[in-house]
Amino acid sequence: MRFFIFIVLFTCSCKAYQTSSETDTSSDTDIFSDEIIDLINALNITWKAGKNLHGLSLSKMKKLFMSSEETLTSIREKLRYLRHDEEQISSFDSRDKWAHCPSIGQIYDQGLCSPSWIYASVGQIADRLCVNEGNKTNIDVDTTVKNMMRSNYGCSNEFNSADMAKAFEYWETTNIAISDLKKCLPFSKRCDIYSDRNFYGIRRVTYYRPVNESGIQYEILHYGPITSHIDVYLDLLFYKSGVYQRRSNVKLGSHVVKCIGWGSENGVDYWLLANSWGTKWGENGFFKLKRGTNELGMEKNNLAVSLNEIDERVEWTLDRIFVRTP
């Protein structure tokens, strides 16, 4: 029976919820059996499977993803094609170059919701503020995200979309503020932070479909991590180590991650990505995705942002406040 379930899960071209009731991947069945994991690892692939989300049924796991298929539709007219013909260095890890920026190497747990886009988006802004200013500005990403979720977003909100540009567009319009946590207690919709004098405007939102992978590498190497949209297939849930290449045809939804570097492992080129499923998933929350083949659509859907300090007072709300690390 387990072998039959494995065949359905990893070779069926239909969507997960279209399988038969006996092997329904939207049921409450725990799919992380030792037998299925052994069968995956026997496929002679470039990555190893393991128990990451053991105890959660697939019906609950699907809350980790977005069902929307829209991808950056809100900024189609702003698309730029960036090309860098010069060859980049063979490997790079943002955590090493900017070791003073803790947000780059921090892994978050989004829980049974779908705010991957907000963790990745807030994370990129936190990373790039630190890259630009040294350790002068470090953002508490987890607290910031939870405040924003409490204030204005949520799992079923209109912002919960595969179009990860919506968050940056919102902040581009409203600007953002950096504040100490104590300045916003008790929490309310409005927060008086004028005394901080740390207001930032988003100067440039660059969404690009790179002509070559050097475009992605150049952006990360010089300016810091970027935000990447990926398609999620069933076998990604099992990823434990190595360089992931998709083998399943069962697509579960869309997801947003951060790309922080690249390299090669056992002759296979990869992108180094930070996920938001906690440190028990993958390689302590990170994963390597095959590079150069547009695996999971990642190489065609990336967004980079830069910021500059502004001198203006506006009416701030919690969905625009980035909380400074104490």
List the helices and strands and how they pair.
Layout: H1 2-11, H2 34-41, E1 47-49, H3 58-61, E2 92-93, H4 94-97, H5 116-133, H6 141-151, H7 165-174, E3 176-180, E4 199-208, H8 213-223, E5 226-233, E6 239-244, E7 251-265, E8 268-274, E9 286-290, E10 302-309, E11 321-324
Parallel strand pairs: 3-11, 6-9
Antiparallel strand pairs: 1-6, 2-7, 3-4, 4-10, 5-7, 5-10, 7-8, 8-9
Shape: globular
**DSSP E strands, number:** 11
* Number of helices, counting only DSSP H or I runs of 4 residues or more: 8
Report the structural category.
Answer: alpha+beta
Number of domains: 1
CATH superfamily annotation: Cysteine proteinases
Kindly state the percentage of residues in helix.
10-25%
Write down the secondary-structure element order: HHEHEHHHHEEHEEEEEEE
Based on CA atoms alone, the radius of gyration comes out at 20 Å
Beta-strand level of the residues, as a percent range?
15-25%
Q: What distance separates the N and C termini?
A: 53 Å
Q: What average pLDDT do the residues reach?
A: 78
- Per the CATH scheme, the topology name is Cathepsin B, Chain A
Low-confidence stretches: 12-26
**Name of the CATH architecture:** Alpha-Beta Complex
Organism: Tetranychus urticae
Family: Belongs to the peptidase C1 family.
GO molecular function, one term: cysteine-type endopeptidase activity
Signal peptide: 1-16
